[in-house]
Amino acid sequence: FTMAVVRAAKRRKLSPPEPAARIFSSRYASLPQTPGWNLEQGYEQRPRKQKQQVENTRLPIKTAEGRIERLTSPARDQEDEADRESILSVSEQQQLATEETQPEETIEIPLRQQIIEAKEELARIGTLLSEDPEEHIGGFKKLGDIAASTNATIKTLALATQLAVYKDVIPGYRIRPLGELDKTEKVSKDVRKLRSFEQALVGNYQNYVKELAKCAKPSSDDTFEATASVANVAISCACALLLAVPHFNLRSDLIKILVSKLSGKRRDANFIKCLETLEKLFREDEDGDPSLDGVGQITKMMKARDYRTDESVINSFLHLRLLSELSSRGSQTRIDKSTADGPNGKKPKFKKEFRTKKQRKILKERKTVEKEFKEADAIASHEDRERLQSETLKLVFVTYFRILKARVPNLTGAVLEGLAKYAHLINQDFFGDLLEALKDLIAASSEDSIQDDADNDTLDEFHDDTSPSQDPLRQSLLSTTTAFALLEGQD
After folding, report:
1. pTM to 2 decimals?
2. What is the DSSP string of 355-414?
3. What phi and psi values does residue 17 have, to the nearest 5 degrees?
4. pLDDT of 387-427, one tens digit each?
5. Strand 61-62 and strand 68-69: pairing?
6. What's the pLDDT tens digit per position in 128-150?
């Protein structure tokens, strides 16, 4: 058995493949103006500018809507802006430059739309200030900027909004200015924040009062109706603010606005409103300082105008609480006893209420807290109140005596009524001179009653038909009543 011999296949020797660049260059080298493959290798091998990773150090914030937003750092924003500018082509940059150089066309907003937007902005700022004035202290300046508008409607809305805001946020004490020592001393963070808020509040409140005084003055503008409406709102705001916060700063400026209106010749609605405001201030004053301030400014105004004012201005002194605690005289025949005592001078017996030990402890703590609150209240002491009311009474009597000496016809009746009311507070050293003046008034009234009615009806330029007639009989009766009031209770 013989096996067939199979011849092995002959292997062919293969050469390694040539690079593509060599094949490309050898194949197309003979062609003219053919770019070589290696021209793009220079751009490929050029080093790239890698963007540096800037670490964001700003914390995320939570917006008013409840969303969480992450803020980017200013450096990253500048790099993004630089990258964006580098991407723009030259033509696009030129186009943007031409657009920036062109002036923007101002779009005129209708007046109705301006008023609506102002109302919404005022409501938003007022709400923020009422909720947390310390965190939104810049809202006071924004309200002042809106009040500086030339539109009468927007101006009145801003003044009324500021009135409501200041009545709500003004504290129950007077803020004193900080001295050099207060600014340099070390205080806690809370105290520093409170002082900053108080000074900002006083500064913006002062600007508001100045704006009220400016708007309350009569203007010779062409738009008389618009100016008159703004003046009415300004006077109303000043009156409401004076009654709401008479203890706060700039009270004298508010009183000055009202007194300047009382010095005019016209007896209009604003005149009556200012007069009623001062009368209510005098009635409700418990400290005596606001009354002294008001009486002082009224007397200065009357003296400067040579007492040519309306009789109702003098009658406002009748509403003063001058030494009301000492006005009643004690009886010489009996002794006044406390109303809490019984008919026999014994205190009535009350049934003792049963309380547990815990209830007695809570009641004791409550009484201690109430006592501390009373001590912390800004209530003037009896001595200070008596001193202030004494100074007020002195100003009133000086004004009364000067008017009697000047023989101002339309103010004599009001002066006699005031002397009759406060006769028990006049010093006995002045009784002789005062009785002589009353005697002269009665004699002059008797002589005037004999003369003709034409000679008797000499009216002052401020006297009108609504004021009481200058009847000589009325002056005689008032003089007699005042004399009896002076001598009442004298030994």
Report:
1. 0.64
2. --HHHHHHHHHHHHHHHHHHHHS----HHHHHHHHHHHHHHHHHHHHHHHHHT-GGGHHH
3. -70, 140
4. 888 888 889 988 988 888 888 878 888 888 888 888 777 77
5. antiparallel
6. 998 888 888 889 999 999 988 88
